[in-house]
């Protein structure tokens, strides 16, 4: 279970504390178990700061706190504070990246939803970057036509293998499983079961996808269809 520690402190020497944290990151390289660190400043009190440190588990946090570098930096941090910091230990019971959920919903719907519904997942000014097209596809109508072509050629589903999020962006690594049922790039339907792996980077705005960049093994797909490698 993910574990989070909140450190509440007051200081008028934040720049020094910031440099102190940089030193801790450098000194604990290859040892620390913390995976994420965020420091927030109170908008109504410029001397009030809260640091949020994330660990994979409570046990990992305890190993981190037992590092000699952690103890030394902590003593220096206390000296920079106007008063003794307070600590709150939290077991994370819910952790959802909403854009990740939106990306997952998009891939789960692909191959199942009718082309007319693809706009439910996209902004009106959506841009699609696909290496198989000479230029980006602009707008929902263009993507709807693109998607309809894939659906006409294949019965397919996406299996999500991994997802990562950063700010307004989500990267999804996926496996595409399909049956070739219609013409594709001039290749008549073969009834062949095929798979393809790829990754899609997507940018979100207000909960919808506004841009996608696709990377996938199209050559491997063509080989499975008997076009290449003969």
Automatic annotation (TrEMBL):
Extract the InterPro entries matched here. Answer: Cyclase_SnoaL-like, NTF2-like_dom_sf
Q: Name one GO biological process term.
A: polyketide metabolic process
In terms of SUPFAM superfamilies, this protein maps to: NTF2-like (SSF54427)
Q: Which domain of life is it from?
A: Bacteria
Q: Name one Pfam family in it.
A: SnoaL
Spell out the protein name for this chain. Answer: Ester cyclase
């Amino acid at each position: 279970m993910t574990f989070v520690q909140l450190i509440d402190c007051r200081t008028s020497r934040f720049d020094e504390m910031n440099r102190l944290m940089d030193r801790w990151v450098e000194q604990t390289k290859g040892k620390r178990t913390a995976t994420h660190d965020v420091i927030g400043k109170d908008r109504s009190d410029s001397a009030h700061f809260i640091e949020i440190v994330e660990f994979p588990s409570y046990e990992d946090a305890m190993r981190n706190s037992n590092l000699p570098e952690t103890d030394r930096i902590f003593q220096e941090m206390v000296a920079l504070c106007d008063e003794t910091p307070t600590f709150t230990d939290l077991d994370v019971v819910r952790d959802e990246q909403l854009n990740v959920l939106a990306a997952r919903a998009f891939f789960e719907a692909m191959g199942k939803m009718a082309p007319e519904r693809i706009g439910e997942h996209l902004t009106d000014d959506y841009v699609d970057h696909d290496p198989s097209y000479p230029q980006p596809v602009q707008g929902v109508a263009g993507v709807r036509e693109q998607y309809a072509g894939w659906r006409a050629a294949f019965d397919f589903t996406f299996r999500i293998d991994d997802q990562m999020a950063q700010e307004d962006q989500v990267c999804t690594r996926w496996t595409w499983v399909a049956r070739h049922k219609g013409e594709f790039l001039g290749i008549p339907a073969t009834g062949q079961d095929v798979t393809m792996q790829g990754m899609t980077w997507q940018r979100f705005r207000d909960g919808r996808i506004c841009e996608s960049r696709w990377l996938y093994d199209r050559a491997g797909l063509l080989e499975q269809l008997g076009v290449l490698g003969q």
